[in-house]
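Weekly puzzle thread! Below is a chain. First person to post its structure in token form gets bragging rights.
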Amino acid sequence: MANIGNASVTVSVPGTGNNPSVSAYFQLDNATTCPELNTASSPGTLAAGLVCNYAVDFAPTIAGSVSGSVIVTDNSLGVTAATQTISLTATATKGTPPISWSNPAAITYGAALSATQLNASSTLAGAFVYSPTSGTVLAAGSQTLAVTFNPTDTDRLQLGDR
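Winning reply:
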């Protein structure tokens, strides 16, 4: 925000919420140098000729294109309760869920795979699908095991493989 005028711009104390107001999925971060006010604040000012920045982070909880805005209420151009709108657009992709799975110890030939070998974990809710499945008796020699994690939250997460 730049004050190109010859008088200070006053950022208004909001009746409710915050000034500026920030749309869902976006948030101001620590690098913001402009006034951030709530109902308990005093009015903020930006002196003539100065510039401040609203640093905005994207904090999606869904995948896809998201639009929003930062709306500042001030007295710019001598207008009480003037609003300045900064449009925001971002795209979120589905995240990859964290999967932990250590290489299992060797098993005796003829023993079936069990939860001892098929023990992947995640900090998120979901289900694991193993290949080969539990109960499979492997052929002699080195074998490859695989797991797919199906997260419960499919709006924000994609399948995870390991």
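Puzzle host: Confirmed. Bonus trivia for everyone else. The mean pLDDT is 91.
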